[in-house]
Amino acid sequence: MLFAESGMMVSDAKWQDRARGLLKVELARQNLGYKELVERLDKIGVKERPQSIANKMSRGGFSAAWLLQCLYALGCEDVRLKWPD
If residue 3 lies in a helix (H) or strand (E), which one and from where to where? Predict the structure, then answer.
C-alpha cells in the first residue's frame, strides 16, 4: 500500500486500476484494439498475443516496464496522470 498526499492509504488494486486505465485511455484515444497493440509491440521486439494482453488488462497486474513498452509502441510521448484523491 502507498500513501497519497492527503495521508490516506491507497490500495495496490487502485494503483493497478490507474495503470490499466492509463493504457486503456491511450488505446481508445488512438481508436486501437489489442490486435493493433500486438502489431506495434512486435515492431519493437516485444512478443504478445491479443489474449495475453486481454488477460493482463483484466488482472490489472503488469510491470511498469511492460506499460512503458506499450506506451512507447503506441507513440505516446506525453502522459497525463491524475493522482488518487
Answer: strand 2-3
